[in-house]
Amino acid sequence: MKLAVVAANGKVGRLIVQEATDRGIDVTAIVRSENKTAAQSVLEKDLFDLTKEDVKDFDVIIDAFGIWAEDSLEQHTASVQHLADLVENTDKRLLVVGGAGSLYLNPEHSLQLYQSENFPEAFKPLAAAMAESLAALRKRDNVKWTYVSPAIDFRPEGEKTGDYVVAGEELTLNAKDESIISYADYAKAMINIALEENYVGQRISVFQK
């Protein structure tokens, strides 16, 4: 498998690259500036400038792009749509590092986490923008996409336990009634998903037991 990680210099992207490298996977870091990852192969190019020619040799593309500036939140949808355009009508798979805010709180899937009363106001614009990007991706029936939401408590410095669960679209808690996962365990889950070729056309979630 030939793998590319877009926005690989970010915290999640770097750990995904490291996980892939540790397993001997052929991984290319796609970055806008100097490579800060463990990848030996690097494509230095802005995400929005990528072409079909740039990605023609990859089997799986992992989108680790994220932006937090409120005046740029529309780039979440724009970036996903651009990458989807590059792989549409091919066997290439697009895996997206998603958010937890769009997870559902009820079986009817009518209420998302970010729409709930207790969700922090400061994070609602970001969560709403990421939910919109997922909604746009759902319309792409000509793309082999998978959207992977982390747990609510997504810990950058958390330890790698290797003990995680793949769940569905509804917020799922562990035995301690917690929704937690470290970046490192999320990276492991993402690489496993890339290797197993499951969950095509689905949004899933991952959390620590």
From TrEMBL:
Spans traversing the lipid bilayer: none
Gene3D superfamilies in the record, alphabetically? NAD(P)-binding Rossmann-like Domain
InterPro entries reported for this sequence:
NAD(P)-bd_dom, NAD(P)-bd_dom_sf, Polyketide_Oxido-like
Domain NAD(P)-binding, residue spans: 8-194
> Where on the tree of life does the source sit, at the highest rank?
Bacteria
What PANTHER family does this protein's entry cite?
FLAVIN REDUCTASE (NADPH) (PTHR43355)
**What name does this protein carry?**
NAD(P)H-binding protein
Which species is the source of this protein?
Lactococcus muris
